[in-house]
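Problem statement: downstream parser choked on a complex file, so we are re-checking the raw output for the 1-deoxymannojirimycin run. The parser issue turned out to be on our end (a line-ending mismatch), but while we're here, posting the original submission so the record is complete.
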Amino acid sequence: MHSPSRKDFVSLTFTGSGNYNSKQWRRQSCWRKWKQLSRLQRNLILFTVALMLVCGIATYPAVTEHFRGKASKKITSLPLTCLLLQKQKRAPHKRGPPGLQNRLQKKGTGSDIQVEENPIQDAKKADKEEGEKPLMVANYLGVCVSEFDRLEAVRDAFRHAWKGYKEFAWGQDELRPISKSYGEWFGLGLTLIDALDTMWILNLREEFEEAKTWVSTELSFNKNVDVNLFESTIRILGGLLSTYHLTGDTLFLDKAKDIGTRLMPAFNTPSKIPYSDVNIGKGTAHPPRWTSDSTVAEVTSIQLEFRELSRLTQDTRYRAAVDEVMQKVHKLEGKQDGLVPMFINTNSGQFTHLGVFTLGARADSYYEYLLKQWIQGGQKETELLEDYLQALEGVKKNLLKKSSPNSLTFVGELSHGQFSPKMDHLVCFLPGTLALGAHHGLPADHMELAKQLMETCYQMYAQMETGLSPEIVHFNMHEGSIRDVDVKLADRHNLLRPETVESLFYLYRFTKDRKYRDWGWEILQNFNKYTKVSTGGYTSINNVRDPEYPSPRDKMESFFLGETLKYFYLLFSDDPELLSLDKYVFNTEAHPLPIWSSAE
Ligand code: DMJ
């Protein structure tokens, strides 16, 4: 804004005789003075008054929220976030937080899925109509949203998800929100346990208390049921341990010890590489029916939880079992530049299906847990760090490429020397993990790579018609491509996965670059627009490319409450002490566990 030039300066001097206290005199005098002003002076005054009015209206919600927000300890500051109008020429179609926007019942789908009018998508459509390039920027809106509003939006989303779970699936594993029923996997109240610490962190105490009552009165692990070792470790054992740490309530530690002990038979194999499945009632374990292999990511991503259980109970057996797995994998043949194959045999203890390398499904959290165990243990276990650093060099050498036309950095796959530009959404944990490593003193170029990959993961959402990422994308690499990302028909689903939001949280914490929050806000709005079910809950969808009919899958995964919503909340929170990354390390299901002090 320019400062007013001398000639535009307006001086108002009131003179005259008579009773200057009389209203009549004042009115006449002001009017006379007003008439005496030049047109320019009058316009200038009117403009200034209008400007002050607009500023007042724009800042009013932030100011009132600020005073309201003082009641909440967690919200320490309240900047007003205004997404910049990068395309100034286009007026936003709608303004205001999602709660104020019209909600439309989707026509013709016969489902209860809610479709909210979405200014982001409207703006994107307008872009396409104008014949512009595929989208590469996030900020399309003139929407001003305070951090308080964003945190409240996450709490609203959680409450809505919980409402569906409570009404139609209470105490069961997963909500089926469209059919208003539930699905069972292990029969252990998976969603409820996965969501415990999220409720605590979001300060939803009423919901937490009713869930706690269920844990204390209904939850029993003495059941003749087969459970997957990895899934029950990261979701149930991890969830119980972190809830114990946050609340100090020994109910959760007792339950954690119970399930941890019941999972131990999985390690009774010839190689000490655990089986994938355990019957927690009978105390027996077995591999899947069709093979004696286990998945590498599964056997190497249970360590944070069992190590912590040993520390808390002073029973060394848990830690000994999982440390032995890591020591064996550390020495194994069959890696390529630190990259691991996807399968390992429980009899021989050797990798199988050699020559195939990915950072996606079946290998992903191996890399994540190398770094996180090193952090958990106070950065003393150098073998873990060496394996992590070597693997990253392997990623750079073998899997990292650029897309066309926008040169997005992505992580592809390798099969017997053949590169494939395929990237799972699961790989989007990597920007966050890289940033976490850099924060703990690893090379600064890890942070640079984290930022590049973060942009790519965001584009996996932004370039889709619903603004939601598919499960798998293929990047274009040949010159002259029109778009960076292609999606095969079978890969168009979205399971409400957390990885991109998780990474946005880490990137924001470490860089304080507000664009990461704005990207997250965009994604949350699109979850609300395309996956929210009016009668309660959120649903996975089949087709992120069809905003008219995304085709609900009728399933709300437990990680939507355990991870996705928790990371949204942490992303929008301004409190660096809310689960400080110098004190906690998150397991691969977003359950925070303490970093051990150097004495341990
Ligand atoms: C979660 O169970 C965990 O994050 C796991 O590491 C990967 N898959 C899901 C979420 O996508």
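For whoever reads this later: Residues 1-26, 59-111, 115-142 have pLDDT under 50 and may be disordered.
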